[in-house]
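Hey, I was hoping to borrow your eyes for a little while. For a while now I've been wondering how a particular protein folds. The fold is given in discrete form, as structure tokens running alongside the sequence. Could you read through the record and tell me how the tokens relate to the sequence? Take your time with it, there's no hurry, and the full record follows here:
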Amino acid sequence: MDKQADKTPQRRRHPEWIRAHLAHTERSGSVRGVLAAHGLHTVCQEARCPNRGECWDAGAATFLILGDTCTRNCRYCSVAHAAPGPPDPGEPHRVAQAARDLGCHYVVVTSVTRDDLPDGGAEHFAQVVQTLRAAISGVRVELLVPDFLGEEHAALIVADSQPTVLGHNIETVRRLFPDVRPAGNYDRSLNLLRMWKRERPALTIKSGLMVGLGETRAEITQALCDLRAAGVDIVTVGQYLQPSRDCVPIERYMHPDEFQDIQAQALAMGFSAAVCGPLVRSSYHAEDAANAARQDNTNS
């Protein structure tokens, strides 16, 4: 037996309910072509999202701006980390052109974390929103942003671009946060979400959790309580899937029935929308969640 192969850790077999839809249809291929033509990155590719086939087959993609290299090294993430290059001033235009080519009327935009920039990339986010609205009549834009190191001025720049939904993922429970997100801070993330709702109450605020990292059900409940108390309107909860062997391992797989229970619990807590399931990611069915939140706010 090859000694080196013998030392290589074995991949854990996923349970039967973890089944990604890896579409290779003409539509999925056209999305790849448009992204390549405009020189753009997506979090679908960089984070190895299990839903990228399904979403691309529907003509949807989550644009990753400010490059594909992150200044942080979160232990759950497969995005490359190093010293990134300067922001590309032509990127907002290319994102808008690609979204128009894809026929998008709801666009999700996220980024790597750019702690090297004075505003964390906030103004670049705002420019992307402005450019999308100029290029596509009636477009709705969802932003998923980093914590901007807690800088309120930067966080308000993205808020004042008036996205349809403004999100920041807390990702995990308080106890696990220092290990999973060593450059982040649980309370800093909560304070960011709370500040947005306090200063810009009309905004729809979103956050998300991964499960399967060793958290207890009581800790999940507490995290949901913390998010709701911070004013979060939409919450997502999905199964963590180890994207590479360098990332933190999976502690357990949560059964779909447990996700249904968590979704019911979140709605009972007062979230306007909750999307919970094994393959759920923050941008999965994002437009449906935004519509549900808008309907809930209209009925309130």
User: Anything to note?
Assistant: The radius of gyration is 19 Å. The chain is about 40% helix and 15% strand. Confidence is low (pLDDT under 50) at residues 1-10. The CA atoms of residues 235 and 274 lie 5 Å apart.
